[in-house]
Design brief:
Structural class: alpha+beta
Keywords: Membrane, Transmembrane, Transmembrane helix
Number of strands: 4
Strand order of the largest sheet: 1-4
Distance between the termini: 55 Å
Number of helices: 1
Order of helices and strands: EEEEH
Radius of gyration: 23 Å
Shape: elongated
Largest sheet: 2 strands, antiparallel
Helix content: 40-55%
Number of domains: 1
């Protein structure tokens, strides 16, 4: 479960039997989000794609810099 808060303090925290948690705050916005396993798998997959993309960009830049040194 991910809880996002923006400039607020938790005044009271209630945990119910079903696993639902309620946060009472003195701020303006409070978002309580429950993530399922498929959401977590999607986040993990997206992170792996991002890592592969970063590695690809790094290798591409490295290859280009080596090619430039060969020409000069």
């Amino acid at each position: 479960m991910i809880i996002r808060q923006k400039k607020e303090q938790i005044v009271n925290h209630v945990k119910l039997k079903g696993g639902l948690e309620i946060f009472i705050t003195n701020g303006i916005s409070c978002e309580v989000q429950s993530l399922t396993q498929s959401d977590l798998d999607l986040q993990f997959f997206t992170l792996r794609l991002y890592r592969l993309f970063v590695i690809f960009i790094f290798l591409f830049n490295l290859f280009n810099s080596l090619q430039l040194h060969k020409v000069n």
